[in-house]
Design goal:
Structural class of chain B: mainly alpha
Mean pLDDT of chain B: 89
Oligomer: heterodimer
CATH architecture of the largest domain in chain A: 3-Layer(aba) Sandwich
Radius of gyration of chain B: 19 Å
Largest sheet of chain A: 7 strands, mixed
Number of strands of chain A: 15
Largest interface: A-B, 36 and 44 residues
CATH topology of chain B: ABC transporter involved in vitamin B12 uptake, BtuC
Strand order of the largest sheet of chain B: 1-2
Structural class of chain A: alpha/beta
Low-confidence stretches of chain A: 1-34
Number of strands of chain B: 2
Order of helices and strands of chain A: HHEHEHEHEEHEHEHEHEHHEHHHEEEEE
CATH topology of the largest domain in chain A: Rossmann fold
Strand order of the largest sheet of chain A: 7-6-8-9-10-14-15
CATH class of chain B: Mainly Alpha
Helix content of chain B: over 70%
CATH class of the largest domain in chain A: Alpha Beta
């Protein structure tokens, strides 16, 4: 309780706050700075960073791999001397697949542990839950997963793809393959609903007919009717935004109905290497995915990343897009801090524009205006071995456009 | 037209899956009045049994056939253990049974997570079951669904025959109809209870094997289906197998038809509303068991 009293006192008196900040060298827990935010504790020879992922509950399957990738980056950075001469001390919290828990843990990381930055969250629901916490406390969150766009928080850096770096290229690819119609299948929550709104607008403007859309509740495993509808629509392709377990049931049903990758390909945006393993290549071989990174992506940076990951977590563990984006986010933060010469959140933010990193997916650059990053879009085909090989890429990093301002017919959706 | 025929079959196959997961419950809940929340985890155990067997028997078809009796035995044994360790002490306290078996179900989920890991595992289905049988233009029926339909019809026939014509079946029916009278007639009711629980849980294991053909195999697969299974038994009427059979297919058909016209979420809501309305009209379910028992 003592520290909260102390914090309130500090907030009451600017003079006292200043005095405390000087005399205590910024080492006291939960202390406010003059702007109302909480300053990171950078007094020792280590600096804390927060790791906020679900280690239990339904999202644990995916988020544990992201946590592993973040840990790998932290260890590599420490082995190379740390950031501004300070070693990173990771503080892990379990969001438990529960959105209020995410908000609570975020607050704890910022106020009690006084971390310099937080890396994590997966679902859009968890990000929306922690967003006000980070904004209120003026603390930094690095969010590593592709998402539905239409967001731009001043205290979040988005290192996964926004819509114009994943969904739009996916549609462009289908169009280039001569497909004229698509059917949309997705889970019933914020990401697929928003994504499909964008897909419908973009498809319409580009001569792709949307023949139908269907949503299944998260966790639903009964796809008989949906697959029947898809089949009856005679669409030329399917755009799949299902999440989690539902994909398993959907693809089993899809194959049983006699639909194949050759006759009606499915483009998925939530199936990476780890998910391929749990669905089974028997059902997935030949189907398409849209991401920015695959384990098979060529380049020295990726060879090093894959080798280091497998050495630490096991040879049978694949690397995937969200893991790569999480790994990259730690390095980008390091580069921003070094450019700013300070751990101060506002200074770090100010230094963000144009910061680059030679990532496993290729060169990435931070766009300071949107706090998203320039990423190369890639379409991949799932192989019999469970790995995804690239069949198309955008040729170079695509400028992030979370509100699709540069895409006629799709802007103004928010 | 072909779409409607296809949807009719989808309805039948949803019904078959519902019946398969509810069949074991129809025995343990319907006949014995035990609310076993861990029933879904017995289904999970059956699915994981298939997975484990496939690690040693690599031929997909053979391992599936072997898995059916093995999963029956594994899930049945788990059921007997649960009945012996906990449920038999709580026969007069149904609410406590609910809470205790709910706890057991959480423990079993975590156990599965610890043994097999949090991510789903996959089994390889024999090629013939991943394909479909074509019935003319545009109409085809998934072989896996046909297999499940056949399996459930077989299971219902075997269970009905066992209850009707075997000494054990007669004892089970006697205990269900009037436990005290059965006991004074020399029927060892405790042993009959245990055997009933073995068969009911074993059927859950068989359902688990079949579900590997349709959906994911993971620690939480049981919780996703347990509610549907209870619905079928409650609406069908306690203590009657035929009620569950009819209700499973009616609900499957209703679900398929409404979903075709609307969406999956709306269909679920409408099916629930239909169930609630039905239970207002017939709180005892479709069929009831008339007995002279005072209990």
């Amino acid at each position: 309780m003592l520290r909260f009293h102390r914090r309130r006192l500090a907030a009451c008196s600017v003079a006292l706050a200043a005095a405390l900040a000087i005399s205590a060298c910024g080492s006291k827990t939960g202390e406010s700075d003059s702007t109302g935010g909480v300053t990171a504790d950078t007094s020792g020879d280590t600096v804390k960073v927060g790791l906020l992922n679900s280690l239990s509950g339904t999202m644990a399957i995916s988020e544990v791999t992201v946590r592993d990738a973040i840990m790998l980056a932290v260890e590599e950075i420490n082995a190379a001397g740390g950031v501004l001469g300070k070693k990173l001390a990771p503080v892990g919290e379990d969001g438990a697949s529960d959105w209020p828990t995410f908000a609570e843990k975020a607050e704890k990381l910022i106020k009690v542990d006084r971390v310099a930055a937080v890396f994590g969250c997966w679902t859009s629901a968890s990000r929306k839950a922690v967003k006000p916490v980070f904004e209120e406390n003026k603390a930094l969150l690095f969010y590593p997963v592709q998402y539905e766009g239409l967001e731009q928080s001043p205290y979040i850096f988005y290192t996964g793809a926004t819509t114009n770096q994943q969904i739009v290229p996916g549609l462009d690819y289908l169009k280039a393959q001569g497909k004229k119609s698509v059917y949309l299948v997705g889970s019933d929550y914020v990401f697929p609903r928003t994504a499909n709104k964008i897909i419908k607008a973009y498809a319409e403007a580009n001569g792709l007919k949307v023949l139908g859309e269907d949503y299944a509740p998260l966790g639903s495993t009964e796809f008989g009717t949906i697959v029947n509808k898809v089949k009856a629509s005679k669409a030329e392709a399917v755009f799949n935004t299902l999440n989690g377990d539902s994909n398993v049931a959907f693809f089993k049903e899809y194959k049983s109905a006699g639909l194949t990758a050759a006759s009606m390909p499915v483009v998925s945006v939530s199936i990476a290497e780890e998910e391929v393993k749990s669905i089974g290549t028997q059902y997935l071989a030949g189907q398409l995915t849209a991401w920015n990174y695959y384990q098979t992506t060529t380049g020295a940076a990726n060879d090093k990343f894959v080798k280091a990951y497998k050495a630490k977590f096991g040879a049978d563990k694949p690397t995937s897009d969200p893991m790569e984006a999480a790994y990259v986010s730690v390095y980008l933060w390091k580069a921003m801090v070094e450019k700013a010469g300070s751990f101060d959140v506002e200074k770090v933010k100010g230094a963000s524009n144009g910061v680059t990193f030679e990532a496993p997916e290729g060169l990435v650059t931070i766009d300071g205006a949107t706090q998203h990053i320039h990423k190369t879009a890639r379409i991949g085909k799932i192989g019999d071995d469970g790995l995804i090989t690239e069949v198309w890429n955008s040729g170079g990093p695509v400028k992030p456009d979370p509100y699709l301002k540069g895409y006629p017919g799709a802007s103004g959706l928010s | 037209m072909t779409v409607i025929l296809g949807q009719l079959f989808t309805g039948v196959s949803i019904g078959a899956v519902l019946l398969l997961i509810a069949l074991g419950l129809a025995l343990t809940f319907g006949q014995m009045n035990v609310i076993n929340m861990a029933h879904g985890e017995f289904i999970m155990a059956g699915a994981y049994t298939t997975y484990v067997l496939q690690q040693t028997i690599t031929d997909a078809g053979l391992s599936l056939l072997v898995a059916l009796p093995v999963a029956f035995a594994v899930a049945g044994a788990m059921g007997v253990l649960l009945e012996w360790a906990l449920i038999r002490r709580l026969y007069t306290r149904p609410l406590d049974t609910l809470l205790v078996t709910w706890g057991v179900s959480l423990m079993l989920q975590q156990l599965a997570r610890d043994i097999f890991g949090a991510p789903n595992v996959q089994t390889k289905a024999p090629d013939i079951l991943t394909e479909s049988t074509s019935l003319g233009a545009d109409l085809s029926i998934a072989n896996s669904r046909l297999f499940i339909l056949g399996l459930v019809l077989l299971a219902v026939a075997a269970l009905t025959a066992a209850l009707k014509f075997t000494p054990l079946g007669r004892r089970i029916r006697a205990v269900v109809q009037n436990r005290d009278l059965a006991a004074v007639s020399g029927i060892p009711t405790a042993r009959v209870d245990r055997l009933t629980f073995f068969i009911g849980s074993g059927l859950a294991g068989v359902a688990g094997v079949a579900l590997t053909l349709l959906g994911p195999i993971g620690p939480t697969m049981g919780t996703n289906i347990i509610i549907d299974a209870f619905l079928v038994v409650v609406v069908g009427g306690i203590g009657q197998l035929k009620g569950s059979v009819i209700v499973a297919f009616v609900l499957g058909m209703l679900q398929a038809m409404v979903e075709y016209l609307t969406t999956l979420s709306v269909a679920k809501v409408i099916v629930f509303i239909a169930i609630v309305a039905f239970l207002q009209w017939r709180p005892q379910g479709l069929f009831t068991l008339r007995t002279r028992s005072l209990a």
